[in-house]
Automatic annotation (TrEMBL):
Lineage: unclassified sequences, metagenomes, ecological metagenomes
Protein name stated in the entry: Uncharacterized protein
Source organism (scientific name): marine metagenome
């Protein structure tokens, strides 16, 4: 391999490593969000979180 190809490969591997690390990080919730989560979990197992609405 050429030196430039190795440099590109190293950058790609580093990027994948960093992406994988950040994707598996634990989310941090504010105290208000934590309280909302606690309330929803206590209220019903049937409650869902709708994150988007699409109209067809």
């Amino acid at each position: 391999m050429q030196a430039s190809s190795l440099a590109v490969l190293r950058c790609l591997l580093l990027g994948l490593l960093l992406l994988g690390t950040t994707l598996h990080a634990a989310p941090r919730y504010s105290p208000d969000e934590q309280e909302n989560i606690r309330i929803y979990q206590a209220a019903s197992r049937a409650v869902v979180n709708i994150t988007s609405i699409a109209i067809n």
